[in-house]
Amino acid sequence: MSVFTELSKMWLTRSTKPFIFENRFEERLYFINCKNLGLYIHIPFCESICSFCPYCKVKYNKELCDDYIDTLIDEIHLVGSSNCLVDNKSNLIHKKQVTSLYFGGGTPALVSDKIKEILDTVNKYFIITDGIGIELHPENVTVETLNTLKEAGITKISIGIQSFNNKYQSILGRKKVDTDKLSNALSQVRFETVSMDFIFALPNQTFEDLKRDIDTAISIGANHIAIYPFIDFSFTENKVNTMSKNQKRKLLDSITEYFDRNNFYRNSIWTFSKDKGVKYSSMTRDNFLGFGCSATTLLKDTFKVNTFSIEEYQNRVKSRNLPTSLTVYFTLRQRMIYYLFWTAYTTKVSESDFKDFFGISLNKMYGLELKLAQLLGFITKKDGIYRMTNKGAFYYHHYENFYTLAYIDKMWGIMKDKAFPERIEL
Ligand SMILES: C[S@@+](CC[C@H](N)C(=O)[O-])C[C@H]1O[C@@H](n2cnc3c(N)ncnc32)[C@H](O)[C@@H]1O
Ligand code: SF4
């Protein structure tokens, strides 16, 4: 772990105590009183595996996949029923209101015909107020699949384009994207959010390359764009080189200016949309419940990660236990840092939301750091909201990269090989 990451963690948590992930699992998850709760469902199957991808996934196999979905439905029942109030005839009398639900993977659109069944189960325990999103591989974008998803209740889609440029697709080992096919399907079946994912900072990639990608995305129906910096995870088979910090900064500055000039709204560190109301984000939620292997759950003072092993996931749920592999019990300062880190993805932090969540003033806890960040030109403050400047967003991007390599890379690397590691300290 870099000295920088370690020191900043010690400073911000005012402690030398590491984040301790223990091999423990609770009988139930206490989420009923959590405000702004979101849901996430992980589907770990892909038609083919990309060498650079860090996510928990295996090659699609119908039998395994059908079995997995049955287990997933059991897990939703297990978690949902443990918190819900029932009358003396076992009828549910209170459902939990949640903000949104995202299906991620893997390639969840591969199971488009099962989405309705999963949503029927979710709807037994939860009321979703702000829409349901799902990730698609470009190959999944057909009129038939989009119609099935829409009829099941999906309102937002996110397509993993990576690049429309053949050169970068072949560097990433992916197939050329058929823009005519995409455009035709998207014009026939409409969604509130159509997001497209791109990877930037690939070898020798220029602003012109990215500008062409963004323009094409908008012209074929995207109203939301996600630009992810390429990350070389140590446990993947990736052979693609990364770009230097300076080149990356120039590229990110040019992309940000381009979105600014075209009146796009920056709704998170990586995402830009045509209208303020258009959103697609499974990360910027105060609390969330995750279902499926490798899914994470963040509650008031705990964080848990489900096992990455599909087999062990099924064994646990079949024995009516939660499939948690590791749990962190946060100190208050650790939870605050976690809150600030994820909220900062939206490029803004509200004083009143922080006070609402913790019952303590943000200024009292981090007044010095916020003043310093203002002096350095990383953030500005207006009407009780701290907003990141473009300079701040670049450094956040950079710090996030450190964080990803110091924490996520290490943890996922271990969990990929071990279903229930004894303990991980970060
Ligand atoms: C689960 S995939 C999206 C859906 C579908 N599986 C696909 O690949 O089209 C999520 C996104 O993560 C991003 N991603 C994957 N590996 C990455 C890496 N090493 N660095 C940066 N972004 C990455 C890609 O942009 C990808 O679209
Ligand atoms: S990038 Fe998408 S398709 Fe490729 S392995 Fe990862 S999840 Fe699967």
Give a structural overview:
- By secondary structure, the chain is an alpha/beta fold.
- It has two domains: 104 residues, Arc Repressor Mutant, subunit A; 254 residues, tm_1862 like domain (pyruvate-formate lyase- activating enzyme), CATH 3.80.30.20.
- Helices cover 40% and strands 21% of the residues.
- The protein is built from 13 helices and 21 strands.
- It has a nine-stranded mixed sheet with strand order 12-13-11-10-9-8-6-2-14. Strands 15-16-17 form a three-stranded antiparallel sheet, with no helix packed on it. A three-stranded antiparallel sheet has the order 18-20-19.
- A hairpin with a 3-residue loop joins strand 15 and strand 16.
- Helix 2 runs parallel beside helix 3 and helix 2 packs across helix 9.
- 38% of the residues are buried.
- The mean pLDDT is 89.
- The chain binds S-adenosylmethionine (SAM) and iron/sulfur cluster (SF4).
